[in-house]
Write a structure and sequence with these properties.
The structure is a single chain. With 390 residues, this protein is an alpha/beta fold. It folds into three domains: 6-63 and 88-156 and 249-314, 3-Layer(bba) Sandwich (FAD/NAD(P)-binding domain); 159-246, Alpha-Beta Plaits, CATH 3.30.70; 316-389, no CATH class. 33% of the residues lie in helices and 29% in strands. It has 13 helices and 16 strands. The strands form two sheets. Strands 1, 2, 6, 7, 8, 9, 15 and 16 form an eight-stranded mixed β-sheet that branches. It has an eight-stranded mixed β-sheet with strand order 3-5-4-11-12-13-10-14. Strand 7 and strand 8 (124-128) form a beta hairpin. It starts with a strand and ends with a helix.
């Protein structure tokens, strides 16, 4: 396969890379490079039900459905939001996409690591292990693991969510938990729990940090949550199938390079709950594919032209997500509790839009709302609004 010519090379065979390869391989000669030997993603994905529109072919990949999710604090306060949510069977979704790509004539290079590139006048050469592949376009779907993200100054990273969890058997039914701070702390961790249809649940601990060196051992906090907290009555104490991850939080500085596009976590930098990224991908991948088809039709692959790619998240949503990350990073248990107390004053529709969609200034701020907040003297929320308006 050395020096073979392709139309498109996709680096990364996660859900984002597979979605693009599935659509693009119907028209183009596509190569997917993946460092792992097996395409097996241990992430779990939660979306809103509206993501099924236009994606009905993936109905069989639905694992579970929920009508509510819980926010709770370390003082026993909680708030339940309503909505239509879907937990996906990630492995089944990956297998369907992989099989479609192969049927379309797409090629996989598994066990190969994308490590560099060279731009020529009419094509790009991609280096992978000891091989070289030529293509007209490279799409980077590797997220924070991409060698380009920092080396090419694509993103300004402000911090990370460290993720530690497992898929655990349930003793009894549990309401899905979107975000919970159970352990009182000056620098709290947060928990997510999403039950599957098989009497199991994805239980994950999230820790916002500025750098990789976390001040706490996440495995110990996770073990306490599963085995000794008030939630222990729901879980089997045996912890297997560990889930680990790092979600970067930052701002996109460059949307594209010459003959290189970015798609997925690195392209949107969504620092909200771990499972929500798929909502943005489902809603936007067809627009992304259409843009690529137009680029081939016009033969326009400069960074300037490729930077016109459709947005996955609007600027206001990114700013709001960034502010919330900073708030959680600098927060303590008491401040987080004040946020839980504020949730009933916001519509469930707005909260769901914040978690899963693009939100606009008018959805959050109005003169009437600001006056009401000032009367309540909720200074943490006022601080967030002031940051949004500046």
């Amino acid at each position: 396969m050395n020096d073979s010519g392709f139309d498109i090379i996709i680096a990364g065979a996660g859900i984002s890379g597979l979605l693009l390869a599935d659509g693009l391989s119907k028209r183009f000669k596509v190569l997917v490079i993946e460092e792992k030997i097996d395409i097996k993603d241990d992430k779990f994905w939660v979306t809103t039900e509206d993501c099924l529109k236009g994606n009905e072919r993936f109905l069989e990949c639905i694992d579970n459905k929920f009508d509510q999710m819980l926010f709770s604090d370390a003082y026993g306060k909680s708030y339940e939001i309503k909505g239509k949510y879907i937990l996906w069977n990630t492995l089944k979704l990956q297998n369907i996409l992989k099989n479609n790509i192969i049927l379309n004539g797409g090629v996989f290079a598994l066990g190969e690591k994308f490590c560099g590139y060279n731009n020529e006048s009419n094509y790009i050469t991609v280096f992978s292990n000891d091989k070289r592949y030529n293509a007209r376009l490279l799409i980077d779907c590797m997220g924070y693991k991409s060698p380009l993200i920092l080396s090419e100054d694509i993103i300004k990273i402000r911090g990370y969510y460290l993720i530690y969890g497992a898929k655990i058997k349930l003793k009894r039914n549990i309401t899905p938990i979107c975000l919970s701070n159970y352990i009182l702390s000056k620098s709290p961790c947060f928990f997510e729990v999403f039950p599957t249809s098989q009497k199991e649940a994805y239980a994950v601990l999230l820790k916002p940090v500025r750098g990789f060196n976390s001040p706490r051992d996440l495995s110990k906090d996770f073990s306490f949550f599963i085995k000794k907290s008030i939630y222990s009555k729901y879980f089997n104490s045996e912890i297997n199938n560990i889930i680990k991850g790092i979600v970067p939080v930052g701002t996109v500085k460059k949307k594209a390079l010459n003959r290189i596009l970015f798609f997925g976590e690195s392209a949107q930098n969504n620092p909200s709950a771990t499972g929500t990224c798929l909502t943005h991908l489902f809603r936007n991948y067809n627009d992304f594919i259409h843009f690529i088809e137009q680029s081939f039709d016009k033969n326009t692959f400069s960074a300037r032209e490729l930077s016109k790619v459709p947005e996955i998240m609007n600027d206001f949503s990114r700013k709001l997500q960034m502010i919330m990350f900073e708030e959680l990073l600098d927060s303590n248990s008491k401040r987080f509790s004040s946020y839980i107390g504020y949730l009933p004053k916001i519509s469930d529709e707005t909260i769901n839009t914040f978690l899963f969609g693009n939100i606009y200034l008018k959805d959050v701020v109005s003169i009437k709302k600001i006056k009401k907040i000032y009367k309540l003297k909720d200074f943490h929320v006022i601080n967030i609004l002031l940051k949004l308006l500046t």
